Amino acid sequence: MEQWSEIRRRVLVEGVSQRQIIRETGMHWETLQKILTHSEPPGYRQRQQRPRKKLGSYLSKIELILQEDQALPRKQRHTAKRIWERLQEEGFTGGYTIVKDAVRELTQRRQEVFVPLIHRPGEAQVDFGEALVKMNGRRRKVAFLVMALPYSDADFVMAFERECTETFWEGHVQGFEFFGGVPWRITYDNTKIAVAQIIGGSKERRLTRGFCQLKSHYLFDHHFCQVRRGNEKGVVEGRVKYTRLNSFVPVPQVRDFAELNTHLRQRCVEDRQRRLRGQAAAKEQLLIEDQKAFLPLPVTPFAACRQVSTTVNSLSLVRFDCNDYSVPVQWAHQSVVVKGYCQDVVLYAQSQEIARHRRIWEKEQVCFEPLHYLALLEKKPGALDHARPLADWNLPECFSVLRRRLENERAGDGTREYIKVLRLLEKHSLPKLRCGVERALAVGAISRDAIVQFLFPRQGWRLTSFSLDGHPHLRHVRIAAPEIGAYRQLLAVGHE
């Protein structure tokens, strides 16, 4: 490079003739012309593409294979090596390298080019992702919802058991509360939770009832990406990847979803301090402009639960989301309303809550509450030892002692009396009843009515007092001390 610049300076500045330079250096005339034309060595330049004599007739075949691959899953598309092998079967004698170069060139031509978009304050994008966590000592997969604000790049993340209508609702409710408002426009992909059917190609959509309920409550505008065009919500796609790589690496070890979501929320708050490349301020400052463009939160909170009307079967069970939940036996064969939340399943009959269970996310499971069946067992005491709702009911040892004594002392009625004692749990807590049973066993009073006496606090009569407040006329009443002699006179009269 030093000789290159020196020759250019001597010829173009000092006026040395080109013949002189050629005599001194012995270089070719064309080389000197290249030096004088270019300020630095231009490198090798191919004037025209080399002809592909062996591949020429097979280019159309390669292009057809790549075109057919677009309709197949990515993991089942042709590699360059596989295309080369197929061409060999048809008589191709060339090497693998020229096929690989041709595939690369044709693939690059097919790559889509995108237009940079502007993001206005108050817009949001929502999507779900999946990640592994170690929860309560067991490794499992969870779904997490990401609500991203493209203008400020602030986001909200919440993990759930799985992606469904209830978790979709709950993620929006918690996200809106986290940001302090409702984005005026939210972009989604074509999830079945929100889109029931795509009509007329990819333009119009028939929305699900659940999504319409959410939209009607918060009044935001929606936008759905074109089919297989996730780049239209590229911000949240990137945030899903960022969350998986930063909040789930290493794999979090948590007790439950409450601890996991506390961890994710804290990461979202801490991330607001970052300033992205090209932004004038940190995310926290840009979020203020987002919040100014938000719609206000409704006064009435949104009930993020799926509501179903059904009938209790003969086993006093109600089916919801492929699982069975028990209700008190007096509601068997009656109509009930089930409200399924992310955490709980609540059952109502005649506008009153009759049962509440923790939601089961597996399939074909049964959730029993033993107290729901005690009234029936009192009528059918012979089923006590084989009652499935009581199979996993672990009671303190004093209850087993009470049952043995009752059945020994009351031959045919001891089991029923024991069930009556268990029914006290319908109004009293287990620790309180346990204390009552232990005291009853200590004094030998083991009936249900006797145990009840130990469940209520008792005060000594010396601690009782009568207040004269509100009874001013009683202040003038005087009661004379009793005379023992008067009782003797009464006794004497009685003997006569």
Count the domains.
5
Alpha carbon gap, first and last residue: 150 Å
Mean pLDDT: 88
Give a count of the beta strands, DSSP E runs of length 2 or more: 15
Largest sheet: 6 strands, mixed
CATH class bucket of the largest domain: Alpha Beta
Give me the secondary-structure category. Answer: alpha/beta
**Helix residue percentage:** 25-40%
Structural Rg:
41 Å
Predict the CATH topology of the largest domain. Nucleotidyltransferase, domain 5
Low-confidence stretches: none
| Strand percent estimate | 15-25%
- Assigned CATH superfamily of the largest domain: Ribonuclease H-like superfamily/Ribonuclease H
CATH architecture of the largest domain: 2-Layer Sandwich
**H/I helix tally:** 17
The rough form would be described as elongated
Folded structure, characterized:
- With 496 residues, the protein is an alpha/beta fold.
- It has 5 domains: 2-37, no CATH class; 56-110, no CATH class; 123-293, Ribonuclease H-like superfamily/Ribonuclease H (Nucleotidyltransferase, domain 5), CATH 3.30.420.10; 306-367, no CATH class; 374-453, no CATH class.
- It has helices spanning 2-14, 18-25, 29-37, 59-69, 80-89, 96-110, 165-179, 209-218, 234-246, 257-271, 283-293, 374-379, 397-409, 414-422, 430-443, 448-453, 484-495, and strands spanning 123-135, 138-148, 155-160, 185-188, 195-199, 204-207, 221-224, 253-254, 306-311, 317-320, 323-326, 335-340, 344-349, 352-358, 366-367.
- The strands form 4 sheets. Strands 1, 2, 3, 4, 7 and 8 form a 6-stranded mixed sheet that branches.
- Helix 5 (80-89) packs across helix 6 (96-110), helix 13 (397-409) runs antiparallel to helix 14 and helix 13 packs across helix 15 (430-443).
- The relative contact order is 0.06.
